[in-house]
Amino acid sequence: MNGVSVGSLYALLAIGYTLVYGILGLINFAHSDVFMLGTYFAFFMIAVFLLPWWLSVLIGVILCAFVGMSIERVAYRPLRNAPRISALITAVGVSFFIENLGLVTVGARPKGFPRPELMKNVYILLGARIQGVTFWVPIISIVILLALFYIVYRTKVGMAMRAVSRDMETTRLMGVDVDRVILYTFALGSALAGIGGILWACKYPQINPLMGIFPGWKAFTAAVVGGIGNVVGAMLGGFIIGLAEILIVAFFPGLTGYRDAFVFAILIIFLLVRPGGLMGEVAREKV
Amino acid sequence: MKDTVLQVEDLHVFYGGIHALKGVSLSVPQGTIVALIGANGAGKSTTLRTISGLVRAKRGRISFEGKDITEELPHRIVEMGIAMVPEGRRIFPNLTVMENLLLGAYTRRDSQGLKRDLDWVFTLFPRLKERTWQKGGTLSGGEQQMLAVARALMSRPRLLMMDEPSLGLAPLLVREIFDIIRELCENGVTILLIEQNAKAALEIAHYAYVLETGRIVLEGEGKKLLEDERVRKAYLGEE
Ligand SMILES: Nc1ncnc2c1ncn2[C@@H]1O[C@H](COP(=O)(O)OP(=O)(O)OP(=O)(O)O)[C@@H](O)[C@H]1O
Ligand SMILES: [Mg+2]
Asked: Which CATH number fits domain A2-273: 2.40.128, 3.30.1560, 1.10.3470, 1.10.10?
């Protein structure tokens, strides 16, 4: 159950990597920082502005969407026709910028994240005691993932996103304002990262400006394992990584310290066996 | 003289240092079929891509129904009423046939008219109707070409630009595509057509331009060009 719970959070975060990669062929390194920002936005709304929990989350997620759109507009769009490596370096730069801005403004010292009662409750499920977070996190995540699938596969803008990811130029010829679709993609991915971050903080209620880095790398691994660019793959990859990580800790407690290294070992082995990822098409090299 | 729908004046286009169009001028009158022919690399596709806003002109002017569209963005140009069947079909393989068609109608807000036009393209291309749920990538080449044309029609264009719609099709299908082009024209759609198959193009075109290394070298009524010595030699493969 704990594996599913962590896995669903990786899934939420992995979607953002995969959406942006699918469309721009860019690894958005700043994505994990949006995840971190989500927790701080919610934290300040709750602890400083004393807003109710649900409203704080909503504002936090909306702010994340705006941050995501701003990153795209300011940092990536001007480089749309530049070599891929320039955009990649910019992505790393944006990530460092946000992390350091965080360190300067809120400091490196972790802050306790105020969890709602719902997450602290203890339930008895089939005779086992289970914490509210372990129970609610996957449920909330799955509802959100279903909403995402609806957007991507059943709405007009989702259709445009899938089209852009295949052939940006022809999508323009269809009368689609591609730059706007890309903005929406960043908004969507960043909102999911924000929700993921807040749920993460409910599970591990210590927040700091560098907290996004490890979940970010693992979610990115999940996206690659699932077949980067593929939304369903990112979700499956998230659950696989989450479960694998928890299982290794459960069966080999001695290896707990290697838990992070283990995740990357999965990545390497997996890519040797299936270079395109779980759902990926190997031949689909984007030019 | 009919109204001019599209007017291109002194168009210059560069790809880096390559001067691909060197002052192309042409005009497309309302309700006609105008053909653009020329050898490989002459600049035919570049001309269409510049009109549709994908490529920027260094110099020159493009106007559509009297409005200057030289600086417009591609999606605005589609909204204004120009659609294109791109070279090489460019079907979205990961989208269903229906989604490909709906994407063609992306700019439209009138759901009634959209439904009517879906029915209309399905009567033009009955084969697509049986395959609405099939992924674009699984269609045969000919079916993809039909889908490319149908998709462009879904925006209800007043000007349809087609870049080699018959490429790679069996002779029977080529005939079919040309019949449909003629039929579209009779329905009031103005057409700017690029074709390798110069003979077929000149036969249905009211007017035609011959492009050679970025310049218009010859123009005239389709039937007249068919009889022109130079055209016969260079493009119809006659001695
Ligand atoms: N993206 C590009 N970058 C650089 N050069 C280009 C590009 N696109 C076209 N060209 C060059 O511009 C010239 C005109 O190309 P264009 O595609 O317009 O020719 P075309 O008449 O459509 O030929 P074809 O009949 O082979 O389709 C060619 O010399 C081509 O190599
Ligand atoms: Mg061409």
From this structure: 1.10.3470
- Token representation of residue B104: 């063609």
Which residue from A87, A63, A66, A67 is spatially nearest to A75, judged by alpha carbons?
A: A87
Tokens read off for B14:
């560069």
Q: Which residues of A151-174 are buried (b: 16+ CB within 10 A; e: fewer)?
A: ebeeeeebbbbbbbbbbbebbbbb
DSSP string, B16-59: TTEEEEEEEEEEEETT-EEEEEE-TTSSHHHHHHHHTTSS--SE
Give me the amino acid identity at A276: G
Q: Which one of A156, A163, A169 has the shortest CB-CB distance to B95?
A: A163
Three-state DSSP at A22 gives helix
Chain A closest-CA separation from residue B103 CA (Å)? 6
| DSSP per-residue string spanning A61-100 | HHHHHHHHHHHIIIIIGGGTTS-HHHHHHHHHHHHHHHHH
Residue of A nearest to B75 (CA): A175
CA distance linking residue B28 with residue B62, whole number of Å: 11
Interatomic CA distance for residues A159 and A175, integer angstroms: 13
Report pLDDT digits (tens) over B160-176.
Answer: 999 999 887 888 888 88
Retrieve residue A224's tokens.
Answer: 């690659």
pTM value is: 0.91
Residue B102, φ and ψ in degrees, nearest 5? -65, -30
From the CB of residue A250, how many other CB atoms can be counted at a distance below 10 Å? 11
Cβ-proximal residues to B134 (8 Å cutoff; 6+ apart), any chain: B96, B97
Q: Which of A185, A204, A143 is nearest to A12 (CA)?
A: A143
Task: Indicate which ligand has the atom closest to the C-alpha of B213.
Answer: 1
* Burial (CB count within 10 angstroms: exposed 0-12, middle 13-18, buried 19+), residue B114: middle
B50 CA → ligand 2 middle, Å? 12
Which residue's CA is the nearest one to ligand 1's atom 26?
B40
CB A56 within 8 A of CB A46: yes
Q: Give SS3 for A38.
A: helix
Helix, coil or strand: residue A167: coil
Q: Which residues of chain B have pLDDT under 70?
A: 1-2, 237-239
Q: What is the ipTM of this complex?
A: 0.93
Name the token pair of B32.
């006609």
Separation CA B74–CA B92 (nearest Å) = 18
Domains with residue ranges and CATH for chain B:
1-81+157-170+187-239 (3.40.50.300), 89-156 (no CATH)
Q: Which residues of A touch B94 (CB under 8 A)?
A: 162, 165-166
Nearest to B12 by CA among B47, B44, B42, B36: B47
Report, as ranges of residue numbers, the positions in chain A whose pLDDT lies below 70.
280-287
